[in-house]
Amino acid sequence: ELGSYPYEIEWNARPSGTEKTISCKAPLGNEATAIFRFSHFGTKPANLTPLVAPFSETSAAPSMNPLEADARMAGVFIVDPKPIAVPADKADGVGVQGQCEVRFVPSREGEVRALLQLRSPEGIAYKATLVGLGLPPQPQGPIQVGTGGKGGSASVEFRNPLETPAEFTFTVDNPQFVCAQSAKAVLLEAKKSVQVQLSTKADKPTTGRLIVTGKNTATWVYYLKAD
User: Rounded to whole angstroms, how far apart are CA atoms 177 and 199?
Assistant: First the structure.
């Protein structure tokens, strides 16, 4: 039957979902970089401020307030806090391309997730799920300590990648090399570094390893050589 049939429509505005998932992996003690690329379709320019927050499976919003989020995620997923300026879209259906660089610095082995948000004062928001995989430490080097027969020295910067203070022992497996920190364990605060001093008095070319062992954590190996 023809006629007019009025209907009531109820709109429910919800937070926008994530644009995509950004994955990266790095050995414990190293870092990796990933790029979040997005398209801006706004008719006005926007200044987007990056924020990294703990990821919630049930919500596209951060699982805690921004100040707590910054405190917990600092040093794991790192973004430049400066606003990202994007121009207005030309209304051609393509959008204006923008990007945000994210550094992943693992503090433990295994997977960790976070939520990246780019927000403007006008309420524009672009979001991405960050997935980082912390791998076991990989051997590094070789470190040139000196020339065989003439002695020599070198230093290696070691950083505590953990979120808590920890003790580390430094040993060498070849007596031709000497480590100044091998006398006793070194207590390092979270994210702090120490310069490990190495020397050799080898009278011929030789190789060895510097082994860094953390209490209740991983082991790092640096290959050494004197030639």
Answer: 6
Q: What is the mean pLDDT of the chain?
A: 83
Residues 101, 99: Cα–Cα separation, whole Å: 7
| 3-state SS assignment for residue 190 | coil
For the beta carbon of residue 195, count every other beta carbon within 10 angstroms. Answer: 10
Residues 212, 223: Cα–Cα separation, whole Å: 11
Kindly list the strands in the beta sheet with 206-214, ordered across the sheet, starting from the edge strand earlier in the chain: 140-146, 219-226, 206-214, 166-172, 186-188
Query: CA distances (Å), 123 to each of 40, 47, 55, 89, 114, in order?
Result: 13, 11, 20, 17, 21
Q: Which of 117, 156, 164 is nearest to 139 (CA)?
A: 156
Given a contact cutoff of 8 angstroms between Cβ atoms, the answer to whether 211 and 224 are in contact is no
Give residue 54's pLDDT: 80
Q: How confident is the model at residue 9 (pLDDT cuts 50, 70, 90)?
A: confident
Do 97 and 135 touch, CB atoms closer than 8 A? no
What is the DSSP secondary structure assignment for residue 101, as one 8-state letter?
E
